[in-house]
Amino acid sequence: MTNSKTPAWPSRIQTLCHQVQGGSEAARGELWTLLNTSIFMYLQRDQGRLGGLAREDMEDLASQKALDLLGKAEQGVWDPKTRSESEIAGYLAKVARNGAIDFLRKQGRQVTVESPAELEPLVSEEEHPSESPLSSVARREYVDAIKECFEQLQERSKRIWFFRVFLDMSSRDIATHPEVGLKSSHIDVVLQRTRKAMRHCMDQKELNPLEIPTGTFVELWKLVENRLSGERE
């Protein structure tokens, strides 16, 4: 019997990694979403200890680290099937913390680490949520809500948001895309405004962007891709 204090989502990660190695595209999208949300959760938890990260920085960092782990899972380089739920959660906490430290140091910001142990996640089973951070609201409600928020954006903003959120394209790559054609500095401004608009819209609907249900990413990908593809025709 599973300990009630052990989080359920690390077990789901084990299952998804196995499915991803088998070539499941649906599992790939769900795994990225779960990794991204979990890493972001740990970044928020450690924000005060590390001197503070902007929300946009945490979002980008979580997305990047989630993609890195997804790639390793697809190649079989990272396979958590022999790890316990608490070990998987602890590993993701470590990925988040070390990623934040590296980011801050590259920005020229001083990060005080008292001992090597500080680089390890301060993780215990009691610290983890007892249920997946993605399971509190029905997937359909989220997809419909995000669709409505997405439709309120200007056309160019929609494409920029899609390129960053779903394709993880850099600001430079987005700027030079034939469907965008802006300076990279302008892309950052548009992304900041778009994130703010999407967050405000979700807040008005009383939906927490950190509690996106599993499977939402895949459905949303198809919806937005079809929407933008239709405009290109």
UniProtKB/TrEMBL annotation:
GO process terms (BP): DNA-templated transcription initiation
SUPFAM superfamilies: Sigma2 domain of RNA polymerase sigma factors (SSF88946), Sigma3 and sigma4 domains of RNA polymerase sigma factors (SSF88659)
Domain of life: Bacteria
Keyword presence, RNA-binding: no
Record keywords: Sigma factor, Transcription, Transcription regulation
A GO MF term: sigma factor activity
Keyword Transcription: yes
Similarity comment: Belongs to the sigma-70 factor family. ECF subfamily.
PANTHER family referenced in this protein's UniProt entry, alphabetically: RNA POLYMERASE ECF-TYPE SIGMA FACTO, RNA POLYMERASE SIGMA FACTOR
Protein name per its UniProtKB record: RNA polymerase sigma factor
Lineage of the species this protein comes from: Bacteria, Candidatus Eiseniibacteriota
